Amino acid sequence: MQEKRKKMLAFLLLMVVAAMLVPLGKAKAAGAGLTVTKIDYETEELTVTSTSSDSYLYYSDAKRKKWECAGAFTAGTFVLDISWVSKTKDYVLVLKGDKSGEISVTLPKQDRSFKAKYNFLEEKLTYEGLAQGREVFWRKADSTVWQKVGMNGDKLDTATLEAFRRFYARGATLYLRAGQAAGTGTSAGARPSKEVKLALAKQASAPNLTVKHPGTVTVNDKQEYKLETAADWTAITEKTLDIAKVATAAYGANGVDTKILIRVAATEKKLPSASATLTVLAQEEAPKPETAGGNIEPGFANASTLLFTLKEIKDSEEKEVIIEKPSAKNPYEYTVVEAGEQLKDDATWTAITSETVKISQEKAPTGATVHIRKKGRLESTLVWQPESLSYQFVVGDYPGGGTLSVAADSDTSAVTMKADGVLSIVKQEGAPAKDLNFDIALGKEFSDTDVKEITCGGKQLKFTSTKDAGVIHVKITDTSAYETAVTTRGEEQAVKITLKNGEVIDKAVLTVLSGAKVKVKKTFTVTHGLTPGESYEFVVEPGLTFPKNGEEYAKTNVEKLTFMGEDITDYTLVTENGAYKITLTTAHFDRFFQNYGVDLDKEYPLTIVMSNGQKLTEGVSIKLHEDVTIENIISKSMTAGGLLEKEDKYRTFTITCSKDVKISNVGELTWNNQDISMQATKVGDVITITFETDAFKNLTPGTGTVTAPIIFTIKYGDGKQSQASQIYWLTLSPAPNPAP
Q1: Using an 8 Å Cβ cutoff, are 536 and 490 in contact?
Q2: Which of 172, 255, 262, 299 could make an S-S bridge to 282, C-beta 3.0–4.6 Å?
Q3: 580-to-377, 424, 517, 519, 587 alpha-carbon distances in Å
């Protein structure tokens, strides 16, 4: 029985082993014969080969519930479309043949971790999520063609970099992705990554360049520059770019046209701007003097001034300009270098924009060197012509200038030559300039010049001049502008004599002697015909005059008094402490009330004429006053023996007293010292005067026509009287001779 059980157990064990061995053999037999030789994710195709003479290929997913016939093998190969396979997750694809068993391959999902970044400053691509060994591809947004990103080490290769640079001008949108890793049956590889967007922004326009004299370009620290022939750009750190220091090849005798490129530098996130190109023309040769075929004529304007003439030069037929003269559009410039010194880069140059330029001896002394060159200029907005090389003139000895001397017809007490060679002119204040004459001897170099102006204290002295044999004869004719503006007296003041050639002679002085003056300024009110008359007193301090007695000048005397253009005589003059006390009375001014149109109560100057011709018009003034007023002055004319035309039979005046005068009556009316009958009545402070115009028939003018006022004599209660004459004016002509 045991033996039987042992046999039974042995059989069961064999059955189990047999059961286990049969499935293992089928899987191996089934899988054998099919191989996945290639998985291409670009074309989205999977290639299967069969070594078991399979006629058809079948496929399913991991669940194997539904099998699809892919199609028939061709020569043992089948290419399966896998574009329908989802890219968002891993997918198990199961394959079998009609003879071969199953095989499976897991198609990976698309990688979404890939990122790309473009560094515009270094023109370099950097990545995240890129598996080692994977290549990167790019395409334009409007293209389906992918191109490999070529690399040269860690930098873009030339072809890729040039392709990217072509997009700078207009900008472009690119897409990048990591390329596939093609798979096989043993390794499924990897799909291309998800595309990432990369924007190449449009390149900014070239910066606007501002070029300024003396050859600088306005820039900023966001920009960079290079010569057109240079490979590398140089960062700018200053606010200006010195053209001469950058475009060195343009300068010197063998200079050549040179171009400087300037742009806004790139940043990591921004392209460099387009480049602005400044063309620097080759430096021109130095201007030449006339003796060498050029246009510069050096010389002297006067004894203390250099003169350079820069002429326009035409061809032999005088048709075409070969060398232009200086102008605002064609400027030259100069600088002066002291003897023993060298021209410095930072020298200060002065513009020359006219045909002539003058340089003073003070600025360019003997031994100094004057450099003249054409000024740097913009030929157009972005074309700079540098300053030319410079012409050099070494300053020699200056020629002699004008010398002063006392003229033969001068007043030698007023014009003298001092020991130090300075011409001294002494002038009496207020007196006319007379015989203040001197001569200027000219060197032969400047014998054609004359006097332009003479000033003292910044004020013009009037003069006349004549010239003969290289000598200018000068006569000072008026110094009033100086005397009015400058109050300094008795002290020497520098005189500046300027010749027409620009020479300044400063070896002369003017001394104005103190003039006479009224000690205390006064204004007197003179009442017409006041009896008894009042007196008016003022003091005149004398001035200084010639001749000179030892060290002292003589004093001036009062020569006469004038008022309203007429002399006043019989005044009283007394000398007290070297001054003159003058006394006048009312009677001195009565006749002036008979001047038609005189303004009452207005200040009129009393002119004091001194013995040296000085006229004092300020200090004493007179107000002419009358104690009664009438609103309108009347003026009539008639012939002797006749009535006034359209005159009423009676003429009536109403006289109003001033507030502080009490008039008792009107005593009489006169015209030209002839009485006119009248009647006067007084009511309160108002007097009414009536007279018949027929009374004029008895008036006679004498031998000619006379215009005179009717004079009203006013009587006061205290016995005094005054007169009023500015009321009624009468012009009377002689009666015609009777017919024969």
Answers
A1: no
A2: 255
A3: 74, 31, 10, 10, 21
- Are 513 and 544 spatial neighbours (Cβ–Cβ below 8 Å)? yes
| 306: nearest Cα among 390, 389, 363 | 363
Q: pLDDT at position 632, please?
A: 61
Q: Contact 343/334 with Cβ under 8 angstroms? A: no
Residue 415 CB partners (closer than 8 Å, separation 6+): 406, 407, 423, 424, 425, 426, 435, 436, 437, 438
Specify the pLDDT at position 648.
63
Q: Give one DSSP letter per residue of 466-518, joined into a string.
A: EEETTEEEEEEEE-HHHHHH----SS-EEEEEEETTS-EEEEEEEEEEP--EE
Tokens at residue 61, please? 């997913």
Q: How confident is the model at residue 13 (pLDDT cuts 50, 70, 90)?
A: very low
Contact 372, 390 (CB under 8 A): yes
Contact 408, 402 (CB under 8 A): no
pLDDT of 8 higher than 50 = no
- Express each pLDDT in 699-715 by its tens digit: 888 888 888 888 888 88
Q: Say if residue 365 is preceded by a cis peptide, omega within 30 of 0.
A: no
The C-alpha angle 605, 722, 692, rounded to 5 degrees, equals 115
Kindly state the tokens that stand for 542: 């004398």
Contacts of 711 (CB under 8 A, 6+ apart): 529, 594, 669, 670, 671, 723, 724, 725
The pLDDT of residue 412: 92
Spell out the long-range contacts of 55-58 with Cβ–Cβ below 8 A and sequence spacing 24 or more. 55/97, 55/98, 55/99, 56/97, 56/98, 57/95, 57/96, 57/97, 58/95, 58/96, 58/97, 58/98
Token duo for residue 83: 């574009």
The percent of the chain in helix, strand and coil, each rounded to the nearest 5, is 10, 45, 45
pLDDT (tens digit, 9 = 90+) per residue, 193-234?
999 999 988 889 999 999 988 899 999 999 999 999 999 999
- Using one digit for the tens of pLDDT, what is the confidence trace for 137-185? 999 999 999 999 999 988 999 999 999 999 988 889 999 999 999 999 8
Q: pLDDT tens digit string along 336-353?
A: 999 999 999 889 999 999
* Bridge partners (DSSP) listed for residue 57: 71, 97
How far apart CA 722 and CA 529 sit, in angstroms, is 5
pLDDT digit string, tens, across residues 568-618: 999 999 999 999 999 999 999 999 998 888 899 999 999 999 999 999 999
Amino acid at site 26: K
Say if residues 602 and 592 touch (Cβ distance below 8 Å). no
Mean pLDDT computed over 267-289:
93
The pTM assigned to this predicted structure is 0.56
> What is the distance between the terminal CA atoms of the chain, rounded to a whole angstrom?
219
Are 107 and 95 in contact by the 8 Å Cβ rule? The answer is: no
d(CA 230, CA 685): 112
Q: How far apart are CA 369 and CA 375, in angstroms?
A: 18
C-alpha–C-alpha distance, residues 660 and 252, integer Å: 98
